[in-house]
Write a structure and sequence with these properties.
By secondary structure, the chain is mainly β. It is 9% helix and 36% strand. It has two domains: 120 residues, Immunoglobulin-like (Sandwich); 258 residues, no CATH class.
Length: 469
Amino acid sequence: MSTKEKRYLWYFFWLFVVPISLGWHLVLHAPVILGEDEDAAALPVYRLDEGFVLGDEGLRLPQEGRGSVPLNATALVHLTGPTNAAPGATATYAITLTNFEAMTRTYTLTNTLPAPLTYHAGSSRELRYNPATRQLTWQGDIAPGHLDYAIAPSGLALPYIDLADFGAPNLCAELIISHGNCDEATVTLNLGANGYSYPFYGQTWYSLTLSPNGLLLVGAAASRSARDEALPHNETGSVVSLPFWSPPPSAIQATLSPGRTRALSQNQWLPTPELPGALLASLWYDADMTTGGRWHAAILQGLITGYDVLYVQWHDAPHAAAPNLITRHAAALILGDGPLSGQVFFIYDNISDPMALVQAGYTIGVEDYPGTRGTTYAYAPCCGDPHPPQGFPPASGATLHLQPVIYGADFSRTFTYTVRVGGQIPQTIANTAEVTTSSPDPSLVYGWSTHYLYLRHLTFLPLAVGGDE
């Protein structure tokens, strides 16, 4: 090769090869910025078969028959009264109307008494009674309250999906390589990189932090304050960044207030002012997937019609102190800005030993960042917490629905009235209260609640008082 040819080759190398290599290196190592629209920064997206498609009409909790059931926390109307009575007895009923929207609505209540019930005149000050129609009625405005979340069993049993079947990577694999374990580290998802967002307690968020301990922590605390996007840390915690996750560990700036430090492995009663805050606890307990179990996250299309869903799965996750205690559960967060966005489903495929989980401690619930709003669905204390347990671990195949609702001091009205019970034994008396509202939401325009009173002979055993015979 001549000297001239060598010069041309050297010139070509510096002109093309070096800049391309340098640029590729920068692409691979550049941190992902929220809002960046590049495929390289996206979570894996999988489309499901039609068998998993679920329509909007089944997802709003008040629309489950539009009638109240004991587990429907967000029903428009609840009618309550005694379960059993004998003919000739007096019974008191209570009707509660609730406004779960963000605006004042007009309610029209009608309760038509069945034939065996005779209204006691003057027993209600607010309800009007028409003897000709046997109807108790009321009309008036009910103000809204403040935003919170209600948790109740879902009328839809969403499927537990193993994302490994789609080829989704195991989040623990990278954590084990970079940190030596899949225990206390957290992973932050940059949902905004491809235009995804979700509402939580009235704010829009573009990132979400995941923990192996069954937690979804709202935000990333990257370029914002810990109060805006809270990412709690502790002495053993860490954050890992993968090609479709951000930000890198060096960009995390989280703060802990004095007296609000607690490891993510220690489940809490919710709400609580202690960190972490702004969280969704699908099944919060001290899991360690270093030597067993899998952990996946992906965007699913087709699971819920018209929405993309962030699906996070904890598969055969063992307890750190009890490796034989394993769980399979998932969380499905509806993304976007539609009417269902921000609603969450907790899905439970299997808990190998529910009693062992109760003894070890766990939490299922939701909480805002300050720890002033939130609710606990089920709980068993961990680590000396004095709060008493509540509920029990969900059964296999159960789905819980977390729905934003409005609560407050004046968001509900309760009316009471008294009746004389007639009829013959045996008989079941069905009493129904109906309500219509001025809401533009079709699922909130009309609701009802039916109460069943069973007529039977009421017998009482004599009360034996101790003493000398």
